[in-house]
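Inverse folding, one chain.
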């Protein structure tokens, strides 16, 4: 497949195996749901009556005191007692095979290509770490809500974009389906496309 670079009139060959796939909404839904579940903390924890600190002896005798019978000070109905159905640490996971994950990414990239939301440039370099320089560069390209995918970490690009809520910079190896579908446009360099093709081959 041929793709014309946005910053020049040069023609660039992209893989049809990645950018020419059929859109599979069911697969993307499974992968996105699994990705969000894995990122849940699941760190909520409460103590049951067996874990609460305190004596196990009977507070007072069964009869004759005039008070309600009680067997333990760790009872859930007592103040500072245990929780009846205590919540515990939980792992939220929904297994997704590597083939399914790669297939979902291919399907998303194919849809982005079909909708002309994928922008490929030869190079994308910011000479200064100031945010205004990045904004000027994106303004020339008429981009406001964009995910920038690069090959390796660029300090100037990272520093200039970290204060922008509608601009995100990621390297190819750390892209995920949620980020891809969260932005209006995806900006990639030629080198990042080549590396992506090696990863998703």
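Residues assigned per position:
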């Amino acid at each position: 497949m041929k793709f014309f670079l946005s910053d020049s009139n040069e023609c660039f060959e992209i893989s049809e195996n990645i950018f020419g796939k059929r859109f599979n909404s069911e697969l993307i839904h499974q992968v996105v749901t699994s990705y969000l579940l894995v990122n849940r903390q699941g760190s909520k924890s409460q103590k049951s009556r067996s874990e609460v600190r305190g004596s196990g002896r009977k507070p007072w005798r069964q009869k004759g005191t005039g008070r309600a019978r009680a067997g333990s000070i760790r009872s859930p109905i007592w103040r500072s007692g245990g929780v009846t159905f205590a919540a515990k640490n939980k792992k939220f996971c929904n297994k997704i095979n590597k083939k399914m994950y790669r297939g979902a990414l291919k399907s998303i990239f194919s849809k982005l290509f079909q909708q002309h939301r994928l922008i490929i440039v030869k190079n994308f370099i910011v000479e200064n770490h100031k945010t205004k320089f990045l904004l000027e560069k994106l303004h020339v390209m008429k981009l406001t809500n964009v995910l920038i995918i690069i090959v390796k970490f660029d300090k100037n690009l990272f520093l200039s974009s970290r204060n922008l809520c509608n601009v995100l910079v990621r390297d190819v190896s750390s892209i995920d389906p949620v980020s891809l579908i969260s932005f209006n446009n995806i900006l990639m360099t030629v080198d990042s496309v080549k590396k992506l093709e090696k990863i998703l081959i």
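The chain has a mean pLDDT of 91. DSSP finds seven helices and six strands in the chain.
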